[in-house]
Specification:
The complex is a heterodimer of chains A (514) and B (258). Chain A is an alpha+beta fold and 514 residues long. Helix content of chain A is 63%, strand content 7%. The longest helix of chain A is centred in the middle third of the chain and has 40 residues, at 189-228. Chain B has helices at 51-59, 100-106, 120-132, 148-161, 178-193, 205-211, 228-231, 234-240; strands at residues 13-22, 25-35, 40-44, 66-71, 74-75, 83-86, 166-170, 197-201, 214-219, 221-226. Chain B has a 6-stranded mixed β-sheet with strand order 6-7-8-3-9-10, with helices on both faces. Chain B has a 4-stranded antiparallel β-sheet with strand order 2-1-4-5, with helices on one face. The N and C termini of chain B lie far apart (42 Å). The chains are: A alpha+beta (514), B alpha/beta (258). Chains A and B meet through helix 18 and helix 19 of A and strand 1 and strand 2 of B.
Chain lengths: 514, 258
């Protein structure tokens, strides 16, 4: 068994053609992947495709030039130069068409590259008696038949391209992120653009002989896209992309030997498979991670239901079953919510159930206050009685401080909701030591007057006076204040708003209601 | 079709206790207001104050958590034909192969069933609308060949051709020069004179008093609705724009603008 495995893995490596394919493929894949990062960030994937196709015209041109003038057959440097020229002509004409006409970029690319590609095809077919290149070979590539000069081409292209990218990394980064700003600090944006497209052409030229015209764009963008799912920084993305490029070549070559299939196809198949795997398992941007995140996410309304249930329970520990009768949700979601809230310190376990912590109680009161104020509001605007509770449940998720305080003020700081239940008081403002307006203070609070605004000038209160709040009267619209000498002052909402007082730490006498 | 003038006593827009929220913070909270017919109303407020949400709620594009919107007396979702919306200029592809006349005709598409061509009545409506925004002579132009103000007016023509009595405009004055602003304002006033009600999201407080009959100041809640002199007082504005009072110091504190 082990021998068989060893044979499957080590066997091919001992063959020269396999070694060459491995080396050539890896070198091409590394540059492709690194440049590909810039290509996908600039959304130029289609351009890579265009360049690889346009090259065929250049190859044919270079071949013919050397053959007809110097009688040299398949002169590699000339073909290389030809394809570079073809690529640059294509890019320039794309730029020209989209600049001078209303035709948009993607359309211009489609027009120009098919045009140049067609020129190449026609050229090859006219001079079919002179040109001895196999179009199929060009289109499909032949990684297992890599010749020495292909290796040299790939190595030189890799050196040039990687040096340019490393040396001018910041220029490439800035122009791909914010070209306008790059231009404003004096970067030659157009030149850098052309440098990038030349790099893409070089890379494509070096990879075409291995995977072919059609698949080379995949080698350019798929490893880069794979790395994109895993990294939030360009350098790291480029490094990972290079690694994925190499693994695609290695994996693809074994696949091709084992299955006896086309080399280029096997490499891209493996590369695509690799992308799909990463798409599923990537820690941040993967499908599984997203699914887990969604599952873990505890819906706000379930947490609010749990808080409400415990608050209404009056301090008795409740277990999950008892909570389930309050919260309209699936049991697994409920228990997840309970666990999350325990983690956040809102709940603690006690005697087979959960009770609210001090923090939890504050939070529960806040939500209860929002709910009951919304109910009071709904009654105020004339909603029918049977709709108060369900409507308020829909609205209670709006419980930010500004909104709730607005409702409270609008409704004249009510103390009970339409069902006669106590509305929790404003815990933030009425905390002992704070200064707030008298209108917020409930009966029994003791406070020292801080300031009396002009609107309340008629009231006989001066800064420094100690007072106790008396009960509201006249349906809650009249505030009463008891002075130290026992005299009672009555005032309306507007006046009570105008008097500010510091809340004293002395409400022990106040009866606490559950 | 809302061809004949509707009853003048019905308010153009009636918003009651409107609360709209996306997540825990409300975009609009308890907004109630009544906008009478035939007014040019400016909606002002800081960024993120819910101006666009208010427009979308009036159009019936967002579902309110609570509250109601009535257009000319009928609920917003049944009043589609009587409200028209003029988008921001940035939202349009100006290279699109279409002429001024065709854009205006799009306003009639909602009234023409797919098996029929627009009739003479529809063409008359389009002519009328183009005339009102003074764009008749440009009807064969492609829309990219117009100036910014003309582009804005084409879309006003489309809204008018819809036969809507209430027009909602999202920042028509953004990114145009002062002369163009005048031209657009002129068109707004002509539409108003023809009995339309216009609600315009506006950014520039300095011109608000001069341009509009009524101002609606919102930041989640409705802070004020009324004549500009009443709304543009520095106390109210500094409350809504939170402390950035300096830029309002040029404004009269409640007095009539110069």
């Amino acid at each position: 068994m082990i021998e068989l495995l060893a044979q499957a893995f080590i066997g091919p490596i001992q063959e020269t053609y396999f070694q060459k394919a491995l080396i050539g493929g890896s070198v091409a894949a590394i540059v492709c992947s690194v440049v590909g990062c810039l290509v996908i960030l600039r959304r130029m994937a289609f351009l890579g495709d265009a360049l690889s196709h346009a090259m065929i015209a250049g190859v044919a041109g270079g071949y013919l030039f050397m053959k007809l003038l110097f009688q040299v057959e398949a002169h590699a440097p000339a073909m290389l130069l030809g394809s570079l020229i073809a690529a640059i002509v294509t890019v320039a004409s794309i730029g020209f068409v989209s600049r001078v006409s209303r035709v948009k970029d993607d359309t211009a690319i489609g027009i120009m590259y098919t045009g140049v590609f067609a020129g190449g095809v026609v050229l090859v077919s006219i001079f079919r008696n002179y040109i001895h290149i196999d179009l199929m070979h060009f289109i499909m590539g032949d990684v297992l038949g890599v010749a020495d000069h292909d290796l040299w081409v790939a190595a030189i292209a890799a050196c040039i391209v990687l040096s340019v990218i490393v040396l001018f990394f910041r220029s490439f980064q800035l122009t791909s992120f914010d070209p306008v700003m790059a231009a404003s600090i004096g970067m030659p944006v157009v030149l850098i653009d052309y440098a990038l497209t030349t790099c893409v052409s070089l890379v494509v030229v070096s990879a075409v002989s291995m995977v072919g015209v059609i698949l080379v764009v995949g080698l350019l963008i798929t490893p880069a896209a794979t790395a994109y799912l895993l990294s939030d920084r360009l350098e790291r993305m480029m490094l990972m992309s290079a690694v994925f490029g190499v693994t695609s070549v290695v994996g693809g070559l074994y696949l091709c030997v084992w299955l006896d299939s086309a080399g280029g196809g096997a490499i891209m198949l493996f590369c695509t498979f690799q992308f799909l795997v990463v798409l599923v398992v990537a820690p941040n941007y993967g499908l599984l991670a997203r699914w887990f995140r969604l599952r873990r996410m505890v819906p706000q309304e379930v947490m609010e239901d749990v808080l409400g249930a415990l608050a209404r329970g009056g301090g008795k520990p409740l277990d999950a079953a008892a909570m389930a009768s309050f919260a309209e949700t699936r049991p697994d979601r409920l228990s997840r919510a309970v666990r999350a809230m325990a983690r956040e310190g809102l709940l603690q376990e006690e005697r087979g159930g959960y009770i609210l912590t001090a923090n939890g109680e504050r939070e529960a009161n806040r939500i209860l206050r929002a709910h009951r104020l919304w109910e009071t509001y709904l009654q105020h605007v004339g909603a029918p009685a049977e709709e108060l509770h369900p409507r308020a449940r829909d609205l209670e998720h709006v419980h930010d401080k500004a909104s709730v305080d607005y409702l409270d003020d609008l409704l004249g700081h009510p103390t009970t909701d339409p069902h006669g239940r106590l509305i929790p008081e404003n815990h933030v403002e009425c905390r002992p030591g704070n200064v707030c307006s008298l209108s917020l203070l409930r009966a029994g609070k003791i406070a020292a007057v801080e300031s009396v605004a002009r609107e309340a000038g008629a009231i006989n209160l001066r800064p420094g006076d100690q007072i106790a709040m008396g009960p509201r009267s006249n349906g809650g619209s009249v505030w009463t204040v008891i002075r130290k000498d026992g005299s009672v002052i009555a005032m309306d909402h507007h006046t009570a708003d105008a008097i500010k007082a510091r809340v004293m730490d002395n409400d022990r006498g106040t009866p606490r209601r559950p | 079709m809302a061809t004949e003038m509707p009853d003048n006593h019905v308010p153009a827009i009636e918003v009651k206790n409107l609360t709209v929220s996306f997540g825990p913070r409300p975009a609009l909270l308890d907004v109630s207001t009544t906008i009478e017919q035939g007014l040019l109303v400016g909606v002002i407020g800081p960024n993120g104050a819910g101006k666009s949400t208010l427009i979308k709620a009036i159009l019936g594009f967002v579902k309110p958590d609570f509250g109601s919107v009535r257009i000319l007396g009928s609920p917003a979702d049944r009043a589609r034909g009587s409200v028209a919306y003029v988008p921001q200029r940035g939202a349009v592809d100006w290279d699109y192969p279409i002429t001024v006349g065709e854009v205006a005709m799009m306003g009639r598409y909602g009234h023409v069933p797919w098996w029929r061509d627009p009739g003479p009545q529809d063409r008359a409506r389009v002519d009328q609308a183009l005339e009102m925004v003074r764009m008749s002579e440009f009807r064969e132009r492609q829309i990219g060949q117009l100036s910014g103000g003309q582009q804005q007016r084409v879309f006003m023509a489309r809204a008018l051709a819809q036969g809507a009595d209430v027009l909602l405009l999202d920042e028509p004055f953004s990114g145009v020069d002062a002369a163009t602003e005048r031209a657009i304002l002129d068109v707004l006033n002509r539409a108003k004179a023809a009995g339309r009600t216009l609600v315009v999201v506006h950014h520039d407080l300095a011109t608000a008093a001069e341009y509009f009959d009524r101002l609606l100041l919102i930041k989640q809640r409705l802070y004020a609705y009324g004549p500009p002199q009443a709304v543009l007082n520095s106390e109210l504005l500094s409350e809504v724009y939170e402390g950035t009072l300096k830029i309002f110091s040029a404004l009269p504190a409640g007095g009539k603008p110069a």
